[in-house]
Inverse folding.
C-alpha cells in the first residue's frame, strides 16, 4: 500500500522540475528578462549542448549486455498495437487520416523519459528502475524517433514540398517515372542528412557504442573526459525545463489548439499509451516492479522532440505544444495515481 512517504518522494523529485519551468516562464512573461531572440539562443544551447551531453551521460552507463529485452519487447509490442489501431482507423473511418495517425502515434508513444522519467522513477522504484527508463529512452531515440522522421519526410514529399519550399537536397533529384516525385534513395538521403544534423541522435548512438566497448572490455572513461561531460550534463534537466518554460511563455495562448483537441491529446498520452503498454507487458510476461515501471514510463509527459519535429514539418504543432505543456502540468497527479493503482498489481 502506498504511503504518504512514497508520495512525498515523488513530489520531492518533481518540484525542482516545476521550479525550473516556472523560472523560465516568468523570465519571459512576467519579468521580461529575455527577448525572443535571446530565448532562441537559450533553446539552441539546450538543444546542442546540455541535452545531448545529458543523454550521452545516461546512455554511456547502460550495460547493453544486461538490458531487459522483455521490457524492450513489451515496448515494441505496445507500439505495434498502436500502429495497427491507427492504420485501421485511417483506412476504415471517414474521419481517419494519415496525418492525424502520425500525430496520434506521437501522442500515444513518445515520452520525455530522461528529463522527467529518471527522477520520478528513481523516487518510486529506486536506481535499478532508472536503467529501464534509460533503455526505453535509447530505443526511442534510435528507432522510434527515426521512424517518425522517416514518415514525416514521406508525408512532406507526397504533398509536393520538394517542388515548393522543401530542402534543397531534393532539388534536381527527381524520379520522372513516378509522377516527378523524388526517388526513394534521394528521400532516404534527405532523412539521414537531417538525422545526422540532430546532436541528440549522435549522443545516443555514441553513448551506446561506448557502453558496448566499456562493458565488453571493461574500459573506464578517462577522468578528464568524464568531468567534462558531467559539468554540462548535470545542467541538462534544469536547462531543458527552463527552456520549456520559455516556450510556454512565448505562446499567445496556453491552449493553442482548442479545448477539445487538448482533451483528446491528454487521453492519448495518459490513457491510450499506458493501456497499450499494459497489453504489451502482459503479452511478453512482465511481472512485479518491471511491469509497474513499464506502465508508468508510458504515462510520462509528452516528448519535447516530437513537438520540434511537428513544428519543422508543419504537422499539428499546436496540438503537440499543448500536449507538452499540459503533460508537464498534469503529470505529477497522473503519475502518483498510476503509482497508487499499480501497488495493487501483484
Amino acid at each position: 500500500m502506498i504511503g504518504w512517504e512514497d508520495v512525498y518522494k515523488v513530489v520531492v523529485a518533481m518540484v525542482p522540475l516545476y521550479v525550473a519551468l516556472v523560472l523560465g516562464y516568468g523570465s519571459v512573461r512576467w519579468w521580461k528578462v529575455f527577448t525572443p531572440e535571446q530565448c532562441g539562443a537559450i533553446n539552441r544551447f539546450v538543444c546542442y549542448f546540455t541535452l545531448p551531453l545529458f543523454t550521452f551521460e545516461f546512455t554511456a552507463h547502460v550495460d547493453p549486455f544486461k538490458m531487459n529485452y522483455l521490457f524492450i519487447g513489451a515496448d515494441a509490442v505496445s507500439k505495434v498495437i498502436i500502429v495497427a489501431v491507427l492504420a485501421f482507423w485511417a483506412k476504415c473511418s471517414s474521419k481517419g487520416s494519415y496525418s492525424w495517425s502520425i500525430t496520434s502515434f506521437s501522442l500515444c508513444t513518445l515520452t520525455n523519459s530522461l528529463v522527467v522519467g529518471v527522477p520520478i522513477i528513481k523516487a518510486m522504484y529506486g536506481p535499478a528502475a532508472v536503467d529501464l527508463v534509460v533503455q526505453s529512452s535509447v530505443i526511442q531515440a534510435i528507432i522510434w524517433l527515426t521512424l517518425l522522421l522517416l514518415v514525416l519526410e514521406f508525408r512532406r514529399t507526397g504533398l509536393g514540398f520538394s517542388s515548393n519550399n522543401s530542402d534543397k537536397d531534393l532539388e534536381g533529384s527527381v524520379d520522372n517515372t513516378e509522377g516527378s516525385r523524388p526517388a526513394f534513395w534521394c528521400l532516404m538521403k534527405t532523412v539521414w542528412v537531417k538525422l545526422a544534423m540532430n546532436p541528440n541522435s549522435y549522443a545516443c548512438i555514441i553513448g551506446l557504442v561506448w557502453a558496448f566497448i566499456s562493458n565488453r572490455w571493461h574500459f573506464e572513461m578517462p577522468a578528464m573526459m568524464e568531468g567534462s561531460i558531467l559539468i554540462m550534463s548535470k545542467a541538462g534537466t534544469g536547462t531543458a525545463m527552463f527552456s520549456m518554460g520559455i516556450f510556454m511563455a512565448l505562446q499567445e495562448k496556453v491552449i493553442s489548439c482548442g479545448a477539445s483537441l487538448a482533451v483528446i491529446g491528454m487521453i492519448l498520452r495518459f490513457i491510450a499509451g499506458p493501456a497499450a503498454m499494459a497489453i504489451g507487458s502482459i503479452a511478453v510476461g512482465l511481472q512485479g516492479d518491471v511491469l509497474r515501471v513499464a506502465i508508468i514510463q508510458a504515462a510520462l509527459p509528452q516528448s519535447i522532440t516530437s513537438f520540434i519535429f511537428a513544428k519543422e514539418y508543419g504537422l499539428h504543432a499546436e496540438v503537440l505544444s499543448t500536449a507538452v505543456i499540459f503533460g508537464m502540468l498534469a503529470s505529477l497527479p497522473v503519475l502518483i495515481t498510476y503509482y497508487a493503482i499499480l501497488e495493487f498489481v501483484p
Residues 163-178 have pLDDT under 50 and may be disordered. The chain has one domain: 4-46+77-165+230-342. The first helix runs from residue 4 to 29. The chain has 14 helices and two strands.
